[in-house]
Amino acid sequence: MEAPALTYLNNGHGAASWLLTRDHKRIALLYLVSITIFFVIGGIFATLVRFELLTPAGDLLASETYNKMFTMHGVVMVFFFLIPSIPAVLGNFLIPIMIGAKDLAFPRINLLSWYIYVLGGAFTLFAALSGGVDTGWTFYTPYSTAAANTHVMTAAVGIFITGFSSILTGLNFIVTIHRMRATGLTWFRLPLFVWAHYATSLIMILGTPVIAITVLMVAAERALHLGIFDPALGGDPVLFQHLFWFYSHPAVYIMILPAMGVISEIVQAFSRKNIFGYSFIAFSSIAIAVIGFLVWGHHLFVAGQSTYAGLVFSILSFLVAIPSAIKVFNWTATIYKGSVSLESPMLYAFGFIGLFTIGGLTGLFLAAMGLDIHVHDTYFVVAHFHYIMVGGAIMGYLGGLHYWWPKISGRLYSEPWAKFAALIVFVGFNLTFFPQFVAGYLGMPRRYHAYPPEFQVLNVLSTAGASILAVGYALPLIYLTWSLVAGQKAANDPWGARGLEWEIPSPPPTENFTVTPIVSEGTHQYGHSQEVGLA
Amino acid sequence: MGAPRATEPGFGAEPRPVTMSKYFPLFPQQASVQAGQVDAIFFFMVAVTAFFSLLIAGLIIFFAIKYRRRHDEEIGVAIHGSLVLELMWTVIPFFIAMGMFGWGAKVFFDLYRVPAGAMEIFVVGKQWMWKVQHAGGQREINELHVPAGRPVRLIMGSEDVIHSFYIPAFRVKADVIPGRYNTLWFQATTPGRYHLFCAEYCGTKHSGMIGSVVVMEPNDYQAWLSGGPVSDSPAAAGEKLFTSLACVTCHTGEAGSRGPGLGGVFGHEVELQGGGKIVADEAYLRESIVNPQAKVVAGFPPIMPPFQGMVSEEQLLQLIAYLKSLKGPAAQPAAPAQQK
């Protein structure tokens, strides 16, 4: 055979060689398969929600079933798809390679984190199959502690467990990035993808313990009636909201920061040009991680929070938008005078930039206290965070998956189909979620099983869009899988990109590098190094 | 007790506002003095969003076409950055954001500060209905009748989980939280019937916890008040409770009584055991009934039993309405001896 004698894919066969592997690349594939399964499950829940909302009356599902559907959709998508998606798949696969290492710092812990994830997922699926949870993914008290009769405990345990997977992944990344960089690979030569994951890992380590403690308190309150959150026992139900959002707002940055890292790589590769304003992009990731911890109170503007606390949270929420704006402007400037090729990863990146810009700017509507009063808990909020999480994070994930697919699989996929799918995803996404901004400002509340008839047209548009979006998501599943069978073999660097990952074979050998690389410059240096200072 | 004027929850039977384009409205009605203020900042932010989204999209598309790859080996021009541009696109968004912050905060404070002389209405949320008590004793379920042109302040509590009282046409919303009172005020401008929604997910029939706010011309409102069954006013009902719960045996208002006199206490500062003062507002009175040991008035032994679970949220509101109606040391039966 001409192919590389030994790659990480053919180095060992059989279930045990995968289930007991310590190779970061194989663990990344274990994650890829498991998060895809959860994505499909979360998508089925979403489909049922959208079909119910085709008509104003609550006629397809019973109220209780509907409530379980949107709850399970949120829980599965947030904790079991979005949070692990880019870090655990692409980060796991690429960070060691990008820094010239053979593996992560703690390969066994890396495998352990996947098992913890699967165990947490099993609890959550058990909760879903044994009757479901109806609290909303937000588990607000005292509904979750004193009123709900559903499987809150099982779901809480699932989320508690899976949090440790996230903590261990973050820990592994931070130690790896600090300790295992190749000779000459200084901090400011690191790919921006690595910077983004460093910032993400900080949030994972500092934030995730708080959600673990919080769901534990909910479970304890349910079982033992401690009176932490229940006002009848002297507790404070709003305390839960502070604890929950202390993690769950930064968790949004766990989802979006890695996607931003992906976009920084793609924009450089498909403009054949180094990034504009490297250090501004790098530090904006850190700024988002830090300020992101101090904005949680913007979820409580109508909860009777002190007005002065509200003012502080409002101003900080506006400030956290600035580093995001800096990134968007720098990506745009990177394309200027590039050699731009619109292959499918770049289409996803463009989609990301457009949708993230709208998602980010509509976030400012919610940071403005007087305006948030009206749109809080309406479909405006639903639209906003789907622009960030679906338009942003999933577009970034798909872009990254396409960009690095030849490296991961060693195969090329059908580029025309990939371009078509990117277009379908973009159109379907906007048709699904743009009408929800309108419905939200009109006053349609979230989590409504039935709704007044004047909102129907908007909901029909949204459901139609969701059907298109579903096709857009099914296509990559098909043509990427097909490429494993029939795709052309990929060269080391099929895009003509730059970076350590493109210097090694596709797919890489188990030890990544036969000779440890020595790095003398940053990534994405395409030669022709003419220093141009813009006015 | 008069029977509440119940309205069946449900959407089909509800008459919709006539001014609303029935099938495909794109913008909500403005029916309160606050609505215009909220919409103004909304339109400003829509304009900013549209401007930046189109700017970014336009530049990306323009660059992608202008600098498209013309042959396979082509590479881009290495440009490392520009401090001037970085400062520009940091500072300009910063000032725009701070402007939005200030504007948003101003609108919030206007929504927050209740004008003097607002009429008060009590609202209790429970799974899955809204119960309303007017000062004159009228009660409603899932409906709220208010006069146009007059500020209305709602004092709201919950019997079970968190709800949220939301009138989109007025652009006002406040969570209704068990164990405390949240308030909300509005001044309706246009007579009509408007949606009332529960905005915080509260369980199985959350989407059925809806109703209507009916805004009437002041004359029609007076006529509405005098029609229909009227029960005791909240204050009168509270006075009966004050006796039946035996509050009156300790809070006699006479010197040496076991509890502090309560005449005129509402809205005034009281000194607390162990130092400190607190203004006796609705929240403090509520707490002092359900959990009296929390903040004991100076000079009195902490002997009052907690009434947690013994009085409903509605009864609590009635007791508070009664205490608020006590005008001062002269008022009977609770003329306070040691009221400062």
What does this structure look like?
The complex is a heterodimer of chains A (535) and B (340). Chain A is an all-alpha fold. Chain A has one domain (15-502): Cytochrome C Oxidase, Chain A. Chain A has 15 helices and no strands. Mean pLDDT of chain A is 93; it is low at 529-535. In chain B, helix 1 (35-66) runs antiparallel to helix 2 (83-112) and helix 4 packs across helix 7 (313-325). Chain B has a six-stranded mixed sheet, with helices on one face. Chain B has a five-stranded mixed sheet with strand order 5-11-10-7-8. A two-stranded antiparallel ribbon of chain B has the order 12-13. Chain B has three domains: 35-68 and 80-112; 119-226, Immunoglobulin-like; 234-325, Orthogonal Bundle (Cytochrome Bc1 Complex, Chain D, domain 2). Mean pLDDT of chain B is 86; it is low at 1-20 and 330-340. The two termini of chain B are 37 Å apart. Chain B has 340 residues and is an alpha+beta fold. Chain B has helices at 35-66, 83-112, 218-226, 234-244, 247-250, 282-290, 313-325, and strands spanning 5-6, 119-126, 129-134, 139-141, 143-147, 151-158, 163-167, 172-176, 182-187, 192-198, 210-216, 269-271, 277-279. Chain B has seven helices and 13 strands. Chains A and B meet through helix 3, helix 5, helix 9, helix 10 and helix 11 of A and helix 1, helix 2, strand 8 and strand 10 of B.
